[in-house]
Amino acid sequence: MSKESKNSESAVAGATSGFITRFFIQPLDVLKIRFQLQVEPISHSSLSSKYRSNLHCLSCIVKEEGFISLWKGHVPGQYLSIVYGAVQFWAFEVTTKSINQIRPPQGESEKFLVNFNCGALAGGLATFASMPLDVIRTRLVGQSEPRTIHNFRHGFRYIFEKEKVYGFYRGSLPAVLQTLPTAGLHFAFNKLFNSIWTNVRNSLARHSGKSEPSATSSNIQSFLCGGMAGVSSKIIVYPLDLAKKRLQIQGFNHARVGFGLTPKYSGLFNCCIQTIRDESFLGLFKGLSPSLVKAFISTALYFYFYEKSLHLLLLYRKQST
Does residue 109 surpass a pLDDT of 70? Predict the structure, then answer.
């Protein structure tokens, strides 16, 4: 089988994984974005705050906008996940295989660095390819009722007419700065945790006399290692994710009536400094709790469905040859 065919299978598996994962984690993404865009404190004692807790935010959205609003921005979110997943996994497989052919990494630390660098590059390419979709999704999720942007196609046309091509790349600097280490850490931690899990499992198997792990055991390993990789990565780079969302909503103040203040930021550094000044250092971590839940579930499902999709594609290829 050609390299091009194997790489295309990685792209298809990545797109499939992104599509399935997006459906399950979209409500958590909506909660996270709403918290990230809220300047007022997330506290029950703050009467000026639109949302005061996870449950309060959830109940407000359902009551004021309807249950289906938990999937606001789902269509561009799906496009985003499909494009991002396809480009990311394709680029990761291509770069890691190329490096392994030139000089296979030796030792866990070197393997970690290779996976990190290849994952970072793959994430950067995927972010650039999907950035316009991310901006449209953020605008759809972050607007109040009645809606200024009605759907994906209207959002694309609206942003282009009002802000031209630049509007589709608002928040691109923190997006890239966030994605490079996040994607790198996703792949590096996932490979590391899987390696540790496998070594421990093999050690226990030798003592117990068992042979190959069951399918259930492999599924649990894939899910949990992916989830732990997602949480570890998210904690490290979360402030950049918050800054990205706040910059993406710039120039869209009129569509956020009733959601509180929408400060103006001149760039990434100004956004971080102003957030710390007005909301304290912890303001950079607003929405962290639903984000960590989302990070665990989404990354776990992301890698799990990628591996399963790739496995099914390989089986299909063998049966068709």
Answer: yes
